Amino acid sequence: MWPADIEQKARHIIRDFTARGLKLATAESCTGGLIVGALTEVAGSSSVIDRGFVTYSNEAKIEMLGVAGETLAAHGAVSRETAVEMALGTVTNSAADFAVAVTGIAGPSGGSAEKPVGLVHLAAAGRDGAMRHREMRYGDLGREAIRLATVRTALDLVAELAHAP
């Protein structure tokens, strides 16, 4: 169902988190649940995955994750600030030790000169206060390719944060 590299990354996270007794939650906008879908494809993921939030609309980001309306008004849904607040809100509103959040423009429309198609902000947060952010500019690769690239980057970001000193 998934490209081999995504399956491998997901299996690694499930195996690692299971061994360490850790829980993970996701907050997804442009990927619409693909990250948690890739993770739950792995047998045994129920011991790791706490929940996944699909917060496509600004209202969902506010209501489900506590993203500030002021943040959305000042920076937009596709921004570092929103991704960070989504990740923090996911940790706060779940039983997860770690959370990953993504928000971006998968296209084919919706882009602008300032925020082109292929721009994605990802953030990972730990209950311990650890935080990582990554801004990706994948380019106009097509909707499916942008979404799959975002899943790859999100899984890498989770693995990186979970092993940060």
UniProtKB/TrEMBL annotation:
Coiled coil: none annotated. One of its GO terms (molecular function) is nicotinamide-nucleotide amidase activity. Residues 8-160 form the CinA C-terminal domain. It is an enzyme of class 3 (hydrolase). Gene3D superfamilies: CinA-like. It comes from the Bacteria. Keywords: Hydrolase. InterPro entries: CinA-like_C, CinA_C. Its EC number is 3.5.1.42. This is Damage-inducible protein CinA. It comes from Sinorhizobium medicae.
